Fold this sequence. Notes:
alpha/beta
Amino acid sequence: MTAESSDAGPAEAGPHDRETIRDRGTIRIGISACLLGQEVRYDGGHKHAGLLLDAFGTSVEWVAVCPEVEAGFGTPREPVQLSRGDDAIRLVTVTTRRDLTAPMDEFVRRRLPELRLEELSGYILKANSPSCGPREVKVFDGHGGTVVDSGRGLFADALIREFPQLPVEDEGRLADPRLLEEFVRRVFAYYRATKNKKL
Ligand code: SF4
C-alpha cells in the first residue's frame, strides 16, 4: 500500500484499523500516485498537482495508488495504451504490443478489496491515462495506429464499478473551480453519509 498522510492523518493507522480511522474523523481520498508527486510515470517523472492538493490543505489523508507500478510494470517502462481486442478492451504496450491486461486485472482483483478497507470518501484520478483515466481515454485499433473509440482506463473502470457511489474525478476537470467546489462538497457529503455505517 502506498499512503501519504497529512498532519491531520493518523500516519500509523493501517487499513484494518476501521474504528480508529472513524473515531479520528479522518477523510481519506484515493489519488493517482503521480499526482501526489511520486515519480511513478512511465518516463520516471510525476505530474504533481500542487494547486489541486493545496485546495484540500491538511484536512485529508491521501491514499496513493499507481496501478502500473503496483501491477509490476516497473519504472521507467514502455508506455501502454488501450487497444480494442476481439472480446474486450486490452492494455497493450505502445511499441512492442505486449498485452498487459492480465497482470493489470490481477492487480485490480487484489487491490480493490484493500481500498474498501481504506474507507475512502473520494478519488482523484489522472486524466487520459489508459490505467487511471476515468473518461474519454483513447482506445486504439489492434495495431495501435488509429483511434477507434474512447473509454475508461482499466483500473478506473474497475474502481468506478466497485464503488459506484464514490465521488470520482480527474485532475483535468478539477482545474475548473466550479467542478472542484462541487467535488469537495460531494466528498464531504459522502464522508458524512458513510462514517457511521459498516461498509
Ligand atoms: S496515471 Fe496512474 S498508472 Fe500512470 S503513472 Fe499516474 S498513477 Fe501510475
